[in-house]
Design a protein that fits this description.
mainly alpha, AhpD-like, 2 domains, 7 helices
């Protein structure tokens, strides 16, 4: 495996978590392998691996864009990733306030519901792990 792919996968694991990346890789078929290669190289290698801005800032940008575009499944995934990127719930709310102004109140309202549900599930999972 080339070094740039190793670096991209390492970044993807750091942000999304090893379990998610392992599941995605195990679910990859011959049909979607080219797509998985593309997103690993482009998104995780060329964008997320850059050191110009922090993972926290990238996380907030990604959440705002996903919410503004209505990509709910990916939004929930990246809300969970805040546990790894350092973006706080307050950071997420700031990003979603921007969504309300620049992409529309209905998009932000729906994203806030997803964020509340996702953060509640994450808190419950953390509590369950401590038992």
């Amino acid at each position: 495996m080339p070094d740039h792919v190793k670096n991209a996968l390492a970044t993807r694991r750091r942000v999304l978590g090893a379990a998610h990346v392992d599941r995605a890789q195990c679910a990859t078929t011959a049909f979607d392998a080219p797509f998985q290669d593309l997103i690993t190289d482009a998104a995780w290698g060329h964008v997320w691996s850059r050191d110009t801005i922090s993972l926290r800032e990238r996380s907030m940008l990604t959440i705002a864009l996903l919410a503004g575009l209505g990509n709910d499944h990916e939004l929930a995934l990246h809300l969970r990733a805040t546990a790894n990127t350092g973006a706080s719930e307050d950071d997420v709310m700031e990003a979603l306030l921007h969504v309300a102004i620049y992409a529309g109140v209905p998009r932000a309202n729906h994203a806030i519901k997803i964020a509340k549900d996702t953060f509640a599930a994450m808190a419950q999972e953390a509590a369950d792990e401590t038992r």
